[in-house]
Design goal:
The complex is a heterodimer of chains A (about 350) and B (about 375). Chain A is mainly alpha-helical. Helix content of chain A is about 75%, strand content about 0%. Chain B is of the alpha/beta class and about 375 residues long. In chain B, helix 5 (about 140-150) crosses helix 6. Classes of the chains: A mainly alpha (about 350), B alpha/beta (about 375).
Chain lengths: ~350, ~375
Amino acid sequence: MSTSPNAKELTEQTALPAPRRSETVVMGRADFLSIILRLIGVELYKFRRRAMSKVITAIALPILILTFLVLTAFSFIYIYTPVESYLPPKCTETAIKEKQPCLDHLPTQDDLAHAAQSKSEAIQQGSTLLRLPASLAVVSQLLQSVGLIFSVIIAGTITGGEYGVGTIRLMFTRGPTRTQFLLSKVGAMLAAIGLSVVLWVITGILLGTVLNLFVGIALNFTFLTGTWIVHTILYLVALVLDLFIYAMLALCLSTLGRSSAAGVAGALLWWILEGIIGPLFVYTGTVIKGVWGDILKAVPDYFIGVNTTTLLQNQDQYVVGGQPSFLSDLHAVLVLAVYLVVFIGLACWVNQQRDIT
Amino acid sequence: MDSILLTAAHKKELVVKDDIPSQSDGTMVINTNRLTKAFGHLIAVNDLHLQVMRGDVFGFLGPNGSGKTTTIRMLLGLIRPTAGRAILFGMDNAYQLPAILQRIGAIVEMPVFYSYLSGLDNLRVVAAASGMMSGPSNNRRLEEVLDIVELRAYEKLPFRKYSLGMKQRLGIAAALLTDPELVLLDEPTNGLDPAGMIEIRHLITRLSSLGKTIFLSSHILYEVQQVCNRVAILQKGNLIKQGTVAELLRDSEAIEVRMNREDESHYALHILQQAQVRGMDWVKQIQLSTNRRNQLILVISAPSHRSAEVNAFLAHNKLFAAEIHPREGSLEELFLEVTTSASQEGRAGLQALANVANEATEQAHNAKREAL
């Protein structure tokens, strides 16, 4: 092994000593992680101060409130429906022939009590989405649609905007490496998405619980076990991952395209296209049959959306009681990890190689 | 280290000196070796050897498109050189860019900041990105730099509402934030009014007196001549002059002589050219020209203190000048002289290439004809 110093070592040896800075300049820690953490702080500060963040919050909050109000309104439809509506229909020849439950006499006290019981069950059923654990699924659905769009918009603009406005020159000449700069954006997006998911979930659950008071159904916390809490945490992690991975696609595309539009439009387009071309692959595979048919049918299993849904669905069965996915968690995690590595790696590489003119 | 806070009292003390003393200690802060950048077939910077010493106020001159900004971008690592190296503070910027950037404050072209943040908040962002502690620990420093550029009164105003001059001043404040050793200023007076330009000139002088190295790229040659001790002139990516301002201006000194009659001017030219050959070697060049009043004059490229000797020589030859006076060299004249001659040389080179090509084509045709 050669012992001669390389060019980097040589320049390290010949570096001029730096004079002391002014006493009023207080420098922070200069290790790799501290720089990234400081830059994440900068990104979150900028994010908080942007008008766009305020606009997004101003849109997101009413959407959440409106959704729960609509669900409450449905419950009130059941409440204001008269008890008589829950009585079996009057008997007809067809109903008797088909042995359907029907009323061939004037409703008795028993019939009315039975109808009142049915009404109560209908209200209970209709207002389930206002209470835990189902209210969690409502917030989750909102996050997977509206939240995803917002995440993509933010991720695209925080990266593409730097190129568009030209502040990239300012940031690239201040000392941190380009990799640190990009990783700080990734970290800031993860922190922002994580925080938003937690805030949305808490707000949604509280909102549902408060509105449920007007419906008048007692809360039931029998589902609240240690296992449920663990799976709920995993469910929220999967939810964060779902938003984060599309945000990283937007970040990657906005870096490649040097503009917010490229990132936002590209990521949203892919999100929509996945839902369209997935079934097309399956249909074509079914028609073609054979090895090529099987390959085509398997292609959607490697789409982002299918795998994030897998992770959510596999936790959803414990949280709300849905059906598990036909794909395993391991498959989904591996596929999504590859996507993350490709998106972040590609953005880092392009960022590193590019001339900032 | 002395603070670079420029108070009103300081400003009164500041005077633009005719003779700029160099603070240089002989240590090289910037040293480029065959630095080259090509964008496809276009060579923006060609084989650049640039040396900036510690304490220099270095003027980087060149017409639009000469490669000044490309060079600055290469020094700052924004673009990669196609060939060559840039050594700053003894470190190669291809390997140790973060360590180098920690010691530099720079404005590249028009400063751009976050439009939705105030001037002060933008500086907070830049401070944190520059490795300074977040939070109130650097508040004093932020106030200092805002004082230097006189933006304290507008610190809460959003950047989008800043005038061009205010933006430029905020850029300078950002460049000075970490109290850097080297300040790279690319056209710092763009958009400034005359008073603002004088302020910046004073600031550069003050920074220089505190031992900072200033690398100033500017179109305003008078400004450069006022503050810089060394300059480099770039033309179409090539370095055509580099040295101290005094040295370069000495080269462009001349003596202007006006005779009473045109025939006397021609005769004076003749005898001076002969004298130049016979031993008046301090005369570099003699040419006929016209002055502002469209009168024929002799322009003798020679040190201005030789005026009396020129006069005596002409009188000895029975030629009596109507006017004789030294013409002090200015950077503007030097700049025009060297950039024009470089362009002419370039054109001549192109013409020569075209001639060679034509000759080669003709020879090929002849050879073909002979073969037939």
